[in-house]
Amino acid sequence: MAPIDSDDNTTAGEGEELRAGRRKAARYVVPVAVMGVAAATIGLVPALADSGDPDLPKVTAEQLIEKIAKSDVQQLSGTVRINTDLGLPDLGGLESGLMSGMSGGPGSGDDEGSAADPSAKLTELVSGSHTLRVAADGPDRQKLSLLENAAEYSLIHNGKDVWGYDSRSNEVYHSTAAGSAERPEKDVSGQDVPATPKDFADQALKAVDDTTSVTVGGTAQVAGRDAYRLVVEPKQDGSTVGAITVAVDAETGTPLKFTLTPASGGAAVVDVGFTKVSFAKPDASTFDFTPPEGAKVTEADEAGERAKVPERGRGAEGGLAKGMDGLEVIGEGWNAIAAFDTGAGGGLPTASAGGDLGDLGGFLGSFGDQVKGDFGSGTVFKTRLVNALITDDGKVYAGAVTKDALVKAADAAK
Asked: For labelling alongside 314, which of 70, 74, 79, 172 has CA 20 to 30 A away?
């Protein structure tokens, strides 16, 4: 069991309750349907709508985790602000295109799918600042709207139907929610991406083990509501994660804000928080949707056939997806490193090597650090949270760890 730092001694019975509570908290998700990219698990958010430190009854970390686990909010509406600062170079929007391609999401255009496909559209959340409007009424009705300059993208789940609408292109994407009613977005994109503080908190709680310290870090006020601060920190050296702070609503147990700060210091890497929130039942009309007149409507089955992606993110002949079939995890806890062999020697793929990235491989190489070790040589690509080593013989090592930790892992695997 993970050590929980508090002023109280935890009995065996309390410890068993804590483990049960943590398992419940990891499974529970506020029913807000969102889509995006698998990289959102990388982007696990600056302080938003905080004012004052309310005087609340003292609680232990165990009690606060249990409060999250027991939270059963099924109805809510509000505005969420997401800020992500991974420290990536400005590629003029190219990074979103790359993430869409790797996730298998189609772009816009008659031959490439629908601009309203959520698996491509919400890749924008991996960088920059974004404002979302969210609403939920039980497991069968949710809505998320991404507000843009003079445009809006909406994702609506109402019963068996999931609709994506892009006002800029006047395109509509339609799918049937045939799987889990609690996470209908996976039926559309095959991906499970956090976009609310609760989503991010669930991911953080899954990471709690004996390499983790969990404490209560005082109180806060978020979106006009009193909240406790749950602080999760790695005990291991070598992680790029400094601390994760979750603001938990004192009344309902719902996470209102999630902040991840890097071990290197400075601004938060990811900050997700409600600026406005209500737990009243949203109006039923919130979830109504009819394709606007003249809109281009794409059915999910049609988009899949048009995209012709036999393996997510790569062709059937191999590439990155083929290599990830042999994914291994080196180490444990916060220092875990994902390792796989792309099967393509020569480091970053190029057009001449038959890689899907074309000459972009050399372009990306200019942003990395060249490293050498017992494993040979390679390139380390760094963000403020996740780093990745691609060796010259086509192996990849990635994790929320330092460059030295990646090189050490590659040497040990030789």
From this structure: 172
Q: Are 263 and 335 in contact (CB under 8 A)?
A: no
- Between CA 305 and CA 46 the distance in angstroms is 42
Rounded to whole angstroms, how far apart are CA atoms 202 and 18?
Answer: 15
Indicate whether 240 pLDDT > 50: yes
The residue behind tokens 């924008």 is 124
Domains of the chain: 12-287 (2.50.20.10), 320-413 (3.30.310)
On the CB side of 93, CA atoms within 13 Å amount to: 2
Q: Check if the beta carbon of residue 291 is closer than 8 Å to that of residue 297.
A: yes
**Structural element, H or E, at residue 256:** strand 255-262
- Within its chain, how far is the Cα of 60 from the centroid? 28
The answer to whether residues 349 and 355 touch, using CB atoms and an 8 Å cutoff, is: yes
pLDDT tens sequence across 213-228: 999 999 999 999 999 9
Entry field: residues in the chain: 414
